[in-house]
Amino acid sequence: MRTTPRASSRALLATATAGVVLSMTLTIGTGTAAAHVHVDADDAAPGSTSVLTFRVPGESEDGSLTTKFSVALPNVASARTEVMPGWSTVLDRDATAGTVRSVTWTAAPGVGISAEQFALFHVSVALPDEESVSLPATQTYSDGKVVRWDQPPLPGGGEPEYPAPTLELSGAAAGGDEHGSPAPTATAVPSATEPQAEPVAMARPDDTARWLAGGALVLAAVAVVLAVVRRRSA
User: Fold this and answer.
1) Are 136 and 100 in a shared domain?
2) Roughly what angle, to the nearest 10 degrees, separates helices 5-33 and 205-233?
């Protein structure tokens, strides 16, 4: 049976559309999986003092806020946190050794990180004399849910569902102490006494790139289909 040009065009259109939808689905899925607690530091070197920045996204599916965030430290010699409006901070110290075992940030009533937001938590610490350091974290939501970011890498180098934030200490020692360069400014969080605006979605750079790539695929697919239709209709 002979296929008409119009039928062929419809088939091409359906195939192109299905391919674009599948590509965008994979792209969006990848962005969701990448929303983990992450730690970073500039020129972090073994034995140096550095400002660690923890990026904490809100991931609650029922609208609950992140109201507490805690990080286990490898018994560092000293630690100092940055002032963060709307949050209080507690350092857990070993009374005998004088080291700091963990740091916990707690939100004031009415304050927290929604699913459309993330926050940056800064702490200056004296790093251990090692090549890398694992910093297990605990994220607590207003509904009581607790997420522990403490899983090691999977065999073969794969990423687990809740990976522990890990910092590679490969930078050159800065030679300063915790009174050196100021930490980056923390993400502004409204205090309990200030009127709160509606949460604003903050697109991550990697998410923006994926959406742009998906849009480009859609435009390319439409252009190909239109070209084929016009050629067959001529």
Assistant:
1) yes
2) 180
